[in-house]
Hints:
single chain; Tetracycline Repressor, domain 2
Amino acid sequence: MTLPYRGKIADRVSLASERRRKGHRGQVRKLLLDAAGAVFLEVGLEALSMRKVAERAGYTATTLYRYFKDKDELVFAMVSEGLAAFTAALREGRDGGDDPLSQIEGMGLAYVRFALDHPTLYRLLFIQRPDFLGRSRGEVQTLRVESFSLLREAVSHAMGTGAAAPGDAAAVGISLWAVVHGVASLAITMPGVSRVQADQMAAQAVGWCIQGIRQ
């Protein structure tokens, strides 16, 4: 006969053990993705291989294949998690603004800061292999649409309140995106551009954009 309290103890032990396993798997997965990012930065996407990633992470290729079935799935995981972090950064930049235009400004500056803080991810997402964003994997498509929707909705809101001149919110959003992408790409690919210079370029470019759409 199993006493009730013993059953509860066994359940708690089982739950704690499951949490530890999940925690360990999460740590290993993050380590593998970090290693993939490091290899990608060194050799580029075409030369990136499962073997190189496994060696960089200090695991066997067999372990890597337990988490990702092939190179494409590994890269898609990098893209998916990168887009989630990117979208969160845009949302944080928007939420820091007190009015519609300052919200757009905050998103523009957050965009460039993300590129400066995560150059490997930014290169993968928007420079070297942006075709991954267009492939039909649910989570990537959803995050891609959400990230642009945040900017388009912010522009539409500014137009609706009269803070910005009326127009096509989607077209204006794409133009703003093009400006900050240009600043971000220049900052992380051109030698000799310091973080201070990049921040100044971002502030000036975003400021000009805000002046351009102001009502």
